[in-house]
Amino acid sequence: MTGKLPGPSPDERQRPAGRRNEQGIRIDPEVEAEHEPRRAVLSALVEHRPGVLADVSGLFSRRQFNIESLTVGTTTDEDRARMTIVIEEPEPGIEQAKKQLQKLIPVVDVRELEPDAVQRELVILKLNGDEPDKVQAITEMYDGDTLDAGPRTITVEITGDEQKIDDAIDAYAQFGIREVVRTGYASLSRGEQPTAAVNEDGTPKQVTADDD
Amino acid sequence: MSEGAQTPHADEVESEAEGGPPTEPEGESHVEPVETGADAVVAALKNAGAEYLFGVQGGAIMPVYDALYSESDLNHVTMAHEQGAAHAADAFGIVSGDPGVCMATSGPGATNLVTGLADASMDSDPLIALTGQVPTNFVGNDAFQETDTIGVTAPITKFNYFSSSPDEVGDDVGTAFALADEGRQGPTLVDLPKDVTQGETTREPTKPKTPDTYNPPEEADEDAVEAAADCLMDAEKPVILAGGGVIKGEAWHELYDFATEYEIPVITTMPGIGAFPEDHELSLEMAGMHGTGYANMAITMTDCLLGIGTRFDDRLTGGLDSFAPDAEVIHVDIDPAEISKNVEADYPLLGDASEVIDQLDDAMTRAPKAEEWREQCQTWKDEYPLDYEMPEDRPLKPQYIVEQFDEATDDDAIVTTGVGQHQMWACQYWTYMEPRTWVSSHGLGTMGYGVPASIGAKLAEPDKEVVSFEGDGSFLMTSQELTVAVRENLDITIVVLNNEAIGMVRQWQDGFYGGRHMASQYPWIPEFDKLAEAYGARGWRLEDQENVEETIQEAIEYDGPSVVDVLIDPEENVYPMVPSGGDNGQFALSEDMLDDI
User: Fold this and answer.
1) In B235-263, which positions are buried (b, 16+ CB within 10 angstroms) versus exposed (e)?
2) ipTM
3) Where are the domains positioned within chain B?
4) Do A13 and B212 touch (CB under 8 A)?
5) What is the C-alpha separation between A15 and A10, in angstroms, rounded?
6) Which fold has domain B10-198?
7) N-term to C-term CA, chain B
8) For residue B264, which of B292, B277, B283 has the smallest C-alpha distance?
9) Domain B398-575 in the same topology as domain B222-383
10) Pairwise CA distance, residues B267 & B282, whole Å
């Protein structure tokens, strides 16, 4: 550079009083506002066709949303599938995740479920079969089922919320867990409130006033 | 296309023999019945009102090209490279406002489109890509020229779709076309397996339409508008930040009326250039990394920022902690996901830019009391003029060259650019008066964008002058598209601001890497004027002050593609500058100042 543009230098200029944080939110410079990550359960009604799962999972990875689980399955409408996605993010991240999901063309509607939503996860465990009676006792305690039993292994399933499943896994650990598979949450909102839904004309179904 | 001589079917089609873009014949245009999937694709493009297709032939897309053989309403422009096709179509979309169409075959054809799609995605440009694909029964088997185009392009398209049936392929193209255009514009892609385009169907595609579940917002919530209007009326230091959405949403008239009625200064983002006339006293021009000092002061000190159709990109905001930190932010956008993505919106107004500006206008009962603020903005304009030193003879200053071309052309001349220093000088020293006259690669920063973009821009607006500023680095990346400009005899003027370097990288090396010029110098570049002549274009070379005005005049007047290779001061850098992540209000006016901020 062979010169300098005219004008007062940085230290001679007016300075604003405020600041923003990393999320672009104006803050009181004295009190640094922190957004702690929280867990959110999102339900998405999507078009039931190839590639949609890849679209959704690709979105979460490229925008670096922290995803805990994602389940997908068909609905009574053969053109629609429902996904339940659990993420852990600070509040602005959760808002972004919802909006970015909604923006995908095959995504028909997205809702964040209330904490009281009905949610269940399934776990299947393959255990050493040395102590079948004790295994059976624990399976009954957790309202589970035995799916397969042989001389060397017993395979059981438990359904419940995350806490219950964690507890059951702990309880089975004494026998030796050979393999475990968890589905992640499947979830619907409680009572009359729609989960994620659309009207015939493609507009999202109205939610009740206290939901929004 | 002027002669039509190079189209695959030119000598067969009488209507093209006379030259000039074919006009609609009187009454009903000639409609061939649909017999194949490819016919349906062509019918869908015609339904959508497409005029030009930019592409490159290849195995898997051949059925579609074959269906174009006897088609007189669609003009195909064969590009040198698929990237050129994507950029030309992108620029056609920017200038016309309607989706540009690019075509390529499977595999390398499709992957060569990728840069153009990513570019369009970042800038919300209306673009539709049609890619050939291997026959459905080969898909997944690593067939010759097979690439998972849908997988590759998913993150960089608004929508993409693997078409699976000859009966539906026409509607798939229509949907993609409509989605590229409606709501927040963007690129879409339809992957066309060869068996689908070759397959039999007699089904005429329906009118292009978006899915029922696609409902972009139109009018903002009235209460939110009232609250935003109150904020604006109470502001003492209001400013409007006009983004690319003002142009995409065709809201420049509303913006002009609103800004002038309430006397609110207007800053633009880079894609927003042209949304507001830059010679207006309320215009502060562009803010951000290489924005004007006055725009950066205003955006830093404002107490009420009305952002319209902007995504608050990091090159605009600098570090978020110091971005408009005293401002309440009113954010007008058609895309809910842009609200509070980067900068928290105190007043989010979801809707179409022109509708929402009208709503705001209705809600305003008075102008903000901002006389002092406007005076302050004027003071900043006086304090921080864009300026440069002019040596008597040489080296030539790039800023001067940009100004001279601006002077030699009409107010509605279209400027296209590559990416780098030359692009920033084209932003700073050209005075933009009209929307859709600034055609550049903003978000992606694609070097090589300019030459193919000038082809698309010229075909979209054949009566306007098109000047393409290039750096030597940018020009080397896509200069082969000159062959298209020559073949189509397009009157475009390419100005290479040649500093024998990737100048912006060299500038950063000077500022931030101890002056170590690693891989940024080009001491081996060709003589671009001669290269132009080899292509069949006219070429000039400018090295000193003598002849500048005459050469510029000659190049502008020459009726065909021309290249002016301008050897500029290799030491010249772009200022003002806000370092990446820096404070806009602390912009540096020279390299020395970078150390102090």
Assistant:
1) bebbbbbbbbbbbbbebbebbbebbeebe
2) 0.85
3) 10-198, 222-383, 398-575
4) no
5) 9
6) Rossmann fold (3.40.50)
7) 52
8) B283
9) yes
10) 9
Is there a cis peptide before residue B576, judged by omega within 30 degrees of 0? yes
**B398-575 — its CATH code?**
3.40.50.970
> What phi and psi, each to the nearest 5 degrees, are found at residue B461?
-135, 75
| Angle at CA of residue B76, ends B72 and B78, nearest 5° | 150
* Interchain proximity B326–A9, CB inside 8 Å: no
List domains and CATH numbers for chain A: 38-112 (3.30.70.260), 118-187 (3.30.70.1150)
Here the tokens at position A170 are 């702990």
* Chosen CATH of B222-383 out of 3.40.50.1220, 3.40.50.2300, 3.40.50.720, 3.40.50.300: 3.40.50.1220
Chain A residue numbers touching B588 (CB-CB < 8 A): 10
Q: Identify all chain B residues contacting A7, using CB atoms and an 8 Å cutoff.
A: 293, 383-385, 589
Site from A105, A107, A203 to mutate, B interface, most B CB atoms within 10 angstroms: A105
CA dihedral B379, B271, B343, A100 (to 10 degrees): 170
Q: What is the total residue count of chain B?
A: 597
Consecutive sets of 10 residues in chain B, 597 residues long: mean pLDDT of each?
42 43 47 92 97 98 97 96 98 98 98 98 98 97 97 97 98 98 98 98 96 94 98 98 98 98 98 98 98 98 98 97 97 97 97 98 98 98 95 94 97 97 98 98 98 98 98 97 98 98 96 95 90 98 94 97 97 96 96 86
DSSP three-state, residue B565: strand
Other beta carbons within 10 angstroms of residue A203's beta carbon come to 12
Cα–Cα distance for residue pair B589/B583, rounded to 1 Å: 13
CB contact under 8 A, A9 and B596: yes
In chain A, residues with a C-beta closer than 8 Å to the C-beta of B155 are 58-59, 62
A152: left (phi over 0), alpha (psi -120 to 50) or beta: alpha
- Tell the residue number behind the tokens 């065909």, with chain if given: B560
DSSP assignment of chain A: --S---S--GGGS---S-EE-TTS-EE-TTS------EEEEEEEEEE-STTHHHHHHHHHHHTT--EEEEEEEE-SSTTEEEEEEEEEE-HHHHHHHHHHHHHSTTEEEEEEPPTTSEEEEEEEEEEE-S-HHHHHHHHHHTT-EEEEE-SSEEEEEEEE-HHHHHHHHHHHGGG-EEEEEE---EEE-STTS-SS-B-TTSPBPPPPGGG-
- pTM (2 decimals)? 0.92
Rounded Cα–Cα distance for residues B484 and B143 (Å): 31
DSSP tag of B396:
B
Check: CB of residue B93 under 8 Å from CB of residue B271: no
